Inverse folding.
């Protein structure tokens, strides 16, 4: 299958190419990520959906190079396309000083004023990495209580960041910026001296977001930012993230297991399974017609609020042990559509249909060499999952 | 009808896992080796070197020779025989007292931690009082004033002064354990409190208890030796401590009879070190974060730039 | 709501305050007001979903019903009779009938014991296993019932060797071992992977139908409440706010909090970012402190329709018809039902049914099931 460039003009911010990450454990090597490639456009929200063992959090940590031994990045490139900045931010990440790391994106030159040249984050020296982190890229972790220092008040934690990266700022300027940031995320300025344990869960998460925004980064990675929060607070935080994004124009990689959430907020969604991407699509495409059987199963694991009440089946089996990934397609033991090539040939991510060139899927059902029958529709998916459930009821090995 | 299949594999698996865990950790292996050496010495030593440790002989203060491998004392007693019998004595005392102390601290600590409320208040008060007492000076005092001098006195004295620390630690650990879901689940199943304490909570605290036990045994061996060295034990018995007592009394150091006080001293030091190593190792086994991971072989970064078709 | 079957377990005006052990110079001792005047009823063969966010008191209600806590006020009725009398005179015999499944499969199983131990304990405690062989047979049967097969393999495994879904199944099997009539499930699937949640939920539904269990399903996810349970009860900050048939409560929520909850739930059918928000949706709001909760209706600080009376007292239950009710002054001040001894006193079509032998309700429930098969 040839790679077809998406129709929209390419203005990439981050290009992940063939990234692989392994964990070396005493009882075997865990392939946390295998050959992951995806592009994030500037100003886009990219959603990464997957369950435990899918590798989504590992990807987040790999991008920020926060992985520690025994985890090791065993392959790939991480190309970042910085926006040349002037004024006080000049001198940061200009591609010219890193001659051997410069690579053009996919061979295509853009017309934009922004830099068309990318730098490989994986090649950064520690000094470059320090510059890069938080200035261009910041990360919001899942549990605010784990990410916040319990013995420092949140004002200090924000000004800490400023002190490190903006040495020219004076104490007053830092304080003012901290207050601005808190106000931006909806925390009253008088809470600047509060300690994390004095704040509610929602406020702590907002504090984390304020810290992430401190240096106006281009890209914010959010690893399950709202999972630990109540539904109502979650909705508020999400709305604020969207508003902030419109105001400050940063891109987001949003990692979550809650696919229904991504359908509401993400522009592009990538679904991961057992360390690989199995489908990428826009949210409309995914909602209307998921291509990969796992995507369909995942979409239908969320009971609906409205619409007809019917029995839902989820996906039989359980996510695989990453030390022992099934051969061929990792999903084949659970897939109601598994057929001949699935347990031997590894499917690669390619275009699903000519009508939807942007929707890529890694599944042999879409490979004309293997599957000469038609492509599955939602009705086909439903029927196959139903019958898999019925047969499973009697004899299935439980999850 | 179902034929019950025997599952020897579970016990075997557990044993094998424990064995592997224990031998992989170098500290524990080293410590266990030392302990095993002394245990074997205690069990088999006197058998291979029969002789009465108290037997007088005409060879006075002889340095090590073929007749007396470790020389003799001022009264012609064979140091090696004394050492072997002393090993037995010290080990038995050490472990017996250690285990008794452990039992007391387990009961008091767990009961106080689990029940809370008034029971906890009373037991904690009791524990705190004993905790505050300075152990070794008190032990010396008690032993000095006791009417009967001997192993039993020493045992009682050491148990009384030694149980409170372990009780405190176990109480704290139990306080945190009793809020775990599986304790609530056991309650919801209908288990009674005693069963929960000793069969649900205690098995989870085994590593702490084991560490306590080893720490206590070290303390006991040292303290018991100390008491005997001061003459507060039964000076007619044979133990490392009494050997040191007699050696000191007879100015062995000044006479240059190193073979008299060095062997028992070394044994004490070695056994203490071995137990301490086991203790460190248990810490590492119980708390994975203390383990130093073997550095993984870092794979060469794959410079392949092919894009997936 | 079916009127001819008596509820098997009822909570009537339950209250639970947890005193704070604080050295308070002012003299007043403080407490966490976890549950304030909650009443609910569980019927055989029906599931009741208890929906609420953190701090709503839903877990406390489950533990009160499991008698892990004693209520500060109110009564619990089993088969119409108060506890400490009749069949459930002792705590252990109560456990025979009412069992609890915990939320966290990783901590509700003791890591040092294997599956066999976990399942054999309730069998022995409740006297089902006469000897080791029979006990083993029962254990294998339990494992098969929760679809953990081949059962022989699972019987000797330790919790750390099982996946989250498998552990939760073992926890369910453990609860079933006591052969209860009531199963209280405290967020049984929230800590499991998304794709296996439905499996476990379907298992519980199957068990409910096969054995006519009365299920209490506690969740923060109102969509799964709709899927799983015939009836739903919504709680906020320790108070009940709305209840009734799930479909009614969710499709036409009456209480402002229920409406907020439903609008906040992820809904892929409502795609696109919703930045304006509907008029009347509160912008900022957190669950209030339960040590010093707001007076009257605890939702009033966040409620767009709050009236002065909302601050003064908590509204009684207003019947909205068809079993749908709410506690909200917008719909009525509610009858003063705080003196009732049983829920069944209030609803006109109910009569207090005396203790019946276990077999009788089966026939009725079966008929009801055939009459209204909403979902399997």
């Amino acid at each position: 299958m040839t790679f077809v460039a998406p129709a929209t003009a390419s203005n990439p911010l981050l290009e992940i190419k063939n990234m692989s990450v392994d964990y070396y454990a005493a009882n075997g090597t865990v392939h946390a990520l295998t050959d992951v490639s995806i592009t994030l456009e500037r100003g886009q929200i990219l959603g990464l959906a997957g369950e435990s063992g899918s590798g989504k959090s590992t990807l987040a940590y790999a991008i920020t190079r926060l992985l520690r031994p025994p985890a090791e990045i065993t392959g790939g490139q991480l190309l970042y396309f910085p926006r040349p900045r002037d004024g006080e931010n000049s001198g940061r990440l200009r591609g010219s000083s890193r001659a051997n790391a410069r690579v053009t994106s996919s061979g295509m030159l853009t017309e934009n004023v922004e830099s068309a040249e990318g730098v490989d984050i994986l090649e950064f020296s520690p000094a470059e990495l320090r510059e890069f982190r938080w200035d261009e890229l910041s990360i919001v972790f899942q549990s605010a209580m784990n990410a916040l220092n319990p013995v420092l008040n949140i004002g200090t934690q924000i000004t800490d960041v400023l002190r490190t990266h903006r040495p020219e700022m004076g104490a007053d300027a830092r304080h003012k910026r901290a207050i601005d940031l808190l106000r931006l995320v909806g925390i009253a300025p008088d809470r600047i001296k509060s300690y994390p344990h004095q704040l509610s869960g929602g406020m702590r998460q907002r504090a984390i977001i304020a810290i992430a925004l401190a240096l106006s980064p281009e890209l914010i990675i959010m690893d399950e930012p709202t999972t630990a929060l109540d539904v109502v607070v979650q909705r508020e935080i999400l709305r604020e993230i969207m508003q902030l994004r419109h105001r400050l124009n940063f891109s987001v990689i949003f990692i979550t297991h809650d696919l229904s959430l991504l359908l509401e907020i993400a522009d592009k969604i990538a679904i991961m399974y057992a360390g690989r991407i199995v489908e990428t699509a826009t949210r409309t495409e995914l909602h209307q017609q998921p291509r990969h059987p796992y995507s369909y199963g995942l979409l239908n694991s969320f009971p609906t609020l409205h619409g007809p009440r019917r029995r839902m089946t989820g996906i039989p089996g359980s996510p695989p042990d990453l030390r022992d990934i099934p051969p061929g397609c990792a999903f084949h033991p659970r897939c109601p559509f598994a057929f001949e090539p699935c347990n031997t040939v590894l499917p690669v991510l390619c275009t699903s249909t000519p009508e939807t060139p942007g929707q890529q899927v890694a599944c042999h059902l879409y490979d004309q060499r293997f599957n000469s029958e038609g492509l599955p529709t939602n009705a086909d998916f439903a029927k196959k999952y139903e019958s898999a459930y019925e047969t499973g009821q009697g004899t299935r090995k439980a999850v | 009808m179902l034929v019950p299949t025997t599952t020897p594999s579970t016990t075997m698996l557990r044993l094998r896992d424990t064995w592997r865990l224990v031998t992989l950790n170098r500290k524990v292996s080293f410590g266990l080796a030392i302990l095993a050496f002394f245990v074997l010495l205690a069990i088999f030593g006197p058998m291979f070197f029969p002789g009465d440790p108290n037997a007088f002989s005409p060879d006075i203060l002889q340095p090590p020779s073929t007749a007396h491998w470790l020389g003799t004392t001022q009264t012609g007693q064979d140091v090696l025989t004394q050492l072997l019998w002393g090993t037995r004595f010290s080990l038995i005392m050490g472990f017996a007292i250690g285990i008794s102390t452990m039992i007391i601290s387990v009961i008091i600590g767990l009961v106080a931690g689990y029940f809370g409320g008034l029971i906890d208040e009373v037991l904690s008060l009791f524990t705190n009082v004993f905790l505050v007492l300075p152990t070794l000076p008190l032990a010396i005092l008690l032993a000095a004033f006791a009417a009967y001098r001997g192993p039993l006195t020493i045992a009682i004295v050491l148990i009384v002064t030694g149980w409170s620390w372990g009780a405190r630690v176990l109480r704290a650990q139990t306080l945190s354990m009793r809020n775990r879901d599986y304790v609530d689940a056991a309650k919801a199943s209908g288990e009674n409190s005693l069963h929960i304490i000793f069969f649900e909570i205690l098995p989870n605290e085994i590593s702490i208890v084991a560490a306590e036990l080893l720490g206590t045994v070290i303390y006991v061996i040292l303290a018991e030796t100390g008491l005997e060295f001061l003459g507060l034990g039964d000076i007619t018995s044979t133990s490392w401590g009494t050997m040191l007592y007699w050696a000191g009394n007879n100015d062995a150091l000044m006479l240059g009879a190193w073979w008299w006080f060095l062997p028992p001293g070394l044994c004490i030091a070695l056994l203490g070190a071995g137990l301490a190593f086991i203790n460190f190792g248990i810490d590492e086994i119980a708390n994975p974060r203390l383990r130093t991971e073997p550095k993984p072989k870092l794979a060469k970064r794959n410079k392949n730039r092919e894009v997936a078709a | 709501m079916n009127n001819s079957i008596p509820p098997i377990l009822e909570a009537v005006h339950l209250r639970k305050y947890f005193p704070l052990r604080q050295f308070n110079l002012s003299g007043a001792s403080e407490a966490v007001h976890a549950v304030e005047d909650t009443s609910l009823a569980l019927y055989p063969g029906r599931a009741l979903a208890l929906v609420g966010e953190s701090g709503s008191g839903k877990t406390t209600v489950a533990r009160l019903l499991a008698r892990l806590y004693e209520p500060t006020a109110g009564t619990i009725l089993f088969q119409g009779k108060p506890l400490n009398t009749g069949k459930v005179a002792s705590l252990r015999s109560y456990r025979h009938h009412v069992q609890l499944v915990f939320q966290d499969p990783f901590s509700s199983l003791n890591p040092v014991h294997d599956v066999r131990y976990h399942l054999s304990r309730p069998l022995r405690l409740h006297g089902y296993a006469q000897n080791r062989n029979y006990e083993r047979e029962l254990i294998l049967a339990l494992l098969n019932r929760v679809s953990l097969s081949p059962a022989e393999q699972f019987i000797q495994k330790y919790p750390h060797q099982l996946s989250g879904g498998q552990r939760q199944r073992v926890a369910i099997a453990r609860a079933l071992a006591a052969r209860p009539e009531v199963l209280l499930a405290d967020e049984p699937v929230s800590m499991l992977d998304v794709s296996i949640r439905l499996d476990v939920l379907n298992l519980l539904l199957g068990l409910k139908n096969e054995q006519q269990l009365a299920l209490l399903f506690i969740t923060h996810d109102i969509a799964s409440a709709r899927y799983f349970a015939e009836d739903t009860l919504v709680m906020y900050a320790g108070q009940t706010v709305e209840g009734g048939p799930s479909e009614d409560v969710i499709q036409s929520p009456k209480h402002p909090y229920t409406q907020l909850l439903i609008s906040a739930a992820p809904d892929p059918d409502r795609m696109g970012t919703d930045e304006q928000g509907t008029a009347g949706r509160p912008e900022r709001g957190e669950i209030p402190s339960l040590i010093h909760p707001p007076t009257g209706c605890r939702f009033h600080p966040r409620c767009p329709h709050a009236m002065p009376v909302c601050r003064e007292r908590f509204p009684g239950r207003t019947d909205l018809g068809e079993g749908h009710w709410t506690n909200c002054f917008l719909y009525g001040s509610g009858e003063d039902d705080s003196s009732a001894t049983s829920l069944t006193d209030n609803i006109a079509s109910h009569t207090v049914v005396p203790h019946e032998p276990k077999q009788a309700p089966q026939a009725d429930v079966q008929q009801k099931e055939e009459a209204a098969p909403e979902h399997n």
